[in-house]
Amino acid sequence: MSEVADEQDKPRRKSLETARPATLAAVLCPYESGGRNHDRSVSARVGEAVGLARAISLDVRLAEAVPLRRITPATRIGKGAVERIAAAVEEQGVGLVIVDDKLTPVQQRNLEKAWSTKVIDRTGLILEIFGARARTHEGRLQVELAALDYQRGRLVRSWTHLERQRGGFGFLGGPGESQIEMDRRLIGDRIVKIKRDLEAVRRTRAVNRAGRQKARLPTVALVGYTNAGKSTLFNRLSGAGVMAKDLLFATLDPTMRSITLPNGKGCVVSDTVGFISDLPTHLVAAFRATLEEVIEADLIVHVRDIAHEDSERQRADVEEVLTQLGAIGPHDSKTGAGAPMIEALNKIDCLSADVRQTLQTRASAGPERARQFPISAATGEGVDALLQAIGDYLNQVGAAREIAVPVTDGATIAWLYRHGEVRSRRDEGDLALLTVALDQAASAQLDRRLAR
User: Fold this and answer.
1) Which stretches within 222-374 are classed as H helix?
2) What percent of the chain has a predicted confidence (pLDDT) above 90?
3) In the 8-state DSSP scheme, what is residue 378?
């Protein structure tokens, strides 16, 4: 038992890319017409799933969309499709089938029997990628927490003591069908320890944020769909050398750098993990310590791949996660309940001249004016205008507000004097009524402070 626990504590997993040769894989995308993703093109879904598989060096030999007339409880996809795919899997010599959907443990087991090969679902694949990519101690902790939470319900297939050498989190193979009760207790103990460690990370981040606020350094968080170009833009803004590749989930570990804006003021830019459609909720929860940088940001820059065929749907997916985090309001993604948000419409260098002109006209004169900024992070086109807009948003002073604060809340009163222009104050009983002019960033911070 102690041997297993010791093994869990070792963060020396090699990435899948170097630990073993590429596995022959098949990618299947079940879809229902009129289902949850009916507004996402089927070809885009297949392309994204194949990209996820190739992100951990899987050799995809078969990729197809599987239409569902109805959900088959035992296998999710219909009997005819199961038999047809079994023949194709055998013919291609496939060793792993990825089902780009959520499978129950029973469905996963039945498909493995039918196809005589290992089967994982979308969540398992994303976690495997994260397990192979996380480099920092914090990143490993967050990924392991999500993986353990996922594994807890799938002990019969996923919790593997005997195959710890190859890296990742054990979704791609291994016996793992013994000592289930002991494993369940070990997993529970490990989850408690990781949560305790991540709480320490959260406290450290809170101290760092407080230091930045005291120095009056606002934070700008870059968010967006995976592979939208966040890290490329981050590198261009900050001169950092963060890995930026045409690869899904190239960035997992957050990076922060201070930059000087065109108006001469400074800010901190934060590069964050990319979002994706149907992101597992427990994965969002595990990365909450990192994503708190988004929640507490003074300005959110949503980096979008405007050249992608599903750019609008990707936008909706990102805003859905931001809403879950409480970074923006559920029905007001434009102004939001949290920090203001602007959009960097990236990869305009990949658009035709006509489409680019239409986009730039709409951004400069349409209803989205001053919210959308067409750019190319790769070439630098439009980045100066984006930087100017960031400076304007952070420096914008709104109308003076009257704020009622308990006179005993000296910390908030001191915060108002430090971050705003207090134009008047009068005390009425237990309340101090202050009229304060705040810039947009400080106003958003105050709203969050008062909400707590």
Assistant:
1) 230-238, 281-286, 288-295, 311-325, 353-365
2) 30
3) T
- Per-residue confidence (pLDDT) for residue 252, from 0 to 100: 59
Locus of tokens 């990143």: 139
At position 329, the amino acid (one-letter code) is G
Q: Which amino acid is at 30?
A: P
Domain boundaries, position 30: 2-158
Structure tokens at 130: 């994260």
Q: Which helix (H) or strand (E) holds 436?
A: strand 431-437
Report the run of H or E that residue 123 belongs to, with start and end.
helix 122-133
- Mean pLDDT rounded to a whole number for the chain: 79
pTM: 0.71
The tens digit of pLDDT for each residue in 169-183 reads: 555 544 444 566 777
Domain assignment of residue 203, yes or no: no
Contact 137, 116 (CB under 8 A): no
Residue 272: per-residue pLDDT: 78
Q: What digits encode the pLDDT tens for the residues 28-51?
A: 999 886 555 555 778 888 998 998
Based on the fold, state whether residues 285 and 384 are members of the same structural domain. Answer: yes
**Per the domain annotation, does 277 fall within a domain?**
yes
Task: With respect to residue 338, please indicate whether it lies within any of the assigned structural domains.
Answer: yes
Within a 13 Å sphere around the CA of 98, how many CA atoms are in the beta-carbon half? 32
Over residues 236-241, the mean pLDDT reads: 79
The pLDDT of residue 33? 67
At 346, give phi and psi (nearest 5°).
-85, 165
Helix axes 311-325, 288-295, angle to 10 degrees: 100
**81 and 131 fall within a common domain:** yes
Q: Please calculate the CA angle 445-311-30 and round it to the nearest 5 degrees.
A: 115
- Domain count along the chain: 3
Can you give the CATH number for the domain in which 340 is found? 3.40.50.300
Q: Is residue 267 part of a domain?
A: yes
Pair (351, 434) in one structural domain: no
Strands of the 219-224 sheet, one edge to the other:
255-260, 266-271, 219-224, 299-305, 341-346, 372-374
Show contacts of 189-196: CB within 8 Å, 24+ apart.
189/5, 190/5, 190/8, 190/144, 190/148, 191/145, 191/148, 191/149, 194/141, 194/144, 194/145, 194/148, 195/145
Tokens 């009056």, residue? 216
- Adjacency order of strands within the sheet including 431-437: 401-406, 431-437, 421-428
